[in-house]
Amino acid sequence: MSRAKLAGTLWFDASEQRAANNLRTALWRLGRACGQLVSADPDRLVLSPAVRVDATELCELANRLIHEPRPDPADLRDVPLLVARAELLPDWDDGWVVADRERFRLLRLEALERAASVLLGRRCLGEALVAALASVQTEPLRESCRRLVVAVHVAEGNLAEALRSYEEYRAILWQELGIEPSGLMRQLIEPLSRGAVGNGAVPRS
Asked: Is the pTM higher than 0.70?
């Protein structure tokens, strides 16, 4: 970023000269306190390559999870980092962050689904459920997330939880959009429903 733009952003109510002096003082103090965090030339400032940026690392992790045919076990172990960071700069309302926030939301959502699917295939069911539930929390109406939650419950043998998850999704989908779950979801749940009826349960209309 240019020095002038940064100074004007940080000290918008000061004169141009005063803002430039304030920025120069801030950079000097930052260098004394923290070392070389910012690389400076006469006109521009750049964050030092030595500084780790969590948003950048999370985006790189998400892209690897999405695009690698066989995700690295180390990346799968880092899925909790994606689970824990649901939103980019949640307390910021600046216009420039909106597009980046939405891009990160969608990237994280795809990565969590992919991770849940891979972990389910590897029978890491607890980890798969955590990732699937995090994706549901991000986008409650997204059926692919809900199918993963139901599939993990089935794989764990928790059939009642699978049915409960399906009925919860069915209710919210009807309430919000007035539609039923897709055929893919129904195919996943029909064997469980037949089993419930066969055990004496009363089927839903």
From this structure: yes
